[in-house]
Amino acid sequence: MRTVVLLMILLGVAAGAWAGSVGDAVEVRIISDNGSELPFYPVSGRSLNRKVYAEAIKGDQYGIVVRNRLNRRVGIVVAVDGRNIITGKKSWLRNDERMYILEPYAEGEFKGWRTGDDRINRFYFTTAADSYAAAFNDASAMGVIAVAVYPEVQRYDPPVEIYRGASRSPLPAPSVQKKAMASDRSSESAGTGYGREEYSPVRTVAFEPERAALEKIYVKYEWRETLCRKGIVACRKRLPRPHNRMWDDDGYAAPPPRS
Fold first, then answer.
1. Strand ranges inside 69-189, DSSP E
2. pLDDT, tens digit, 9 for 90 and up, residues 130-144
3. Which of 87, 172, 222, 250 has its Cα between 20 and 30 A from that of 97?
């Protein structure tokens, strides 16, 4: 099966520290526009899929940075809140979906919903009710960034090595009238919005993915208060502000205490 996919034109994503990355065949980071990486908190369990929690900050625009650690091209299906970031359609992370291609050891940054060959609308953290997925009344995978990795089919069988060295379908526009989320707690949940338009060129290439994903990575992003409530992060209770004896706002001298 030969699938038409998109090869992202890399714009010089700088290599940096990989603290906060997840994945083996590829490494995934979530980076805000201010340059900070979202901290990851691994989920315990025996699942073959890689799962982590991440702390989202409301209003921040962000990008999904993926580095290929293999010595062969890979296709990556990326879904945000359960929607394929190229087509905008509900994703099941299958190998017949639209995907981005990374060359061996290459890195790409994916910053928004693709609306054309040279345009995206930016990702930003918002409430679930304001998210792109909510515009389609789809809360089935809210708050999850998912990456499925498909190596390219090769007609010979070289060993797959992991790098250990140094480190055109337009999207449907979301409805103006958002449908109410089923949960009364939707305002407390995190989602990804359909933000401002930006220039982001790609070109179409031929690529034949393997039938099964080599790796799947899931990042569940939440507000800090939600992570605290779930016990994912240890949060201290806010201590009362200490009284300052030289910063009294009463304004007038109080009567002396009676002896």
1. 74-80, 83-84, 100-102, 107-110, 112-116, 119-127, 144-151
2. 999 999 999 999 999
3. 222
Are 169 and 103 within 8 A, CB to CB?
no
pLDDT for the residue numbered 245: 46
- Give the amino acid at 113: W
C-alpha–C-alpha distance, residues 91 and 81, integer Å: 9
Burial of 59 (0-12, 13-18, 19+ CB in 10 A): exposed
Q: Where are the domains of the chain?
A: 3-230
pLDDT tops 60 at residue 254: no
Instruction: Look up the pTM and report it.
Output: 0.76
DSSP for 2-50?
A: -EEEEEE----PPP---TT-B-SSEEEEEEETTSPBPPEEEPPS--SSE
Least confident of 95-99, 128-132, 160-164: 160-164
Q: For residue range 10-55, what is the model confidence (pLDDT) as tens digits? A: 433 333 223 467 888 999 999 999 999 999 998 866 566 889 999 9
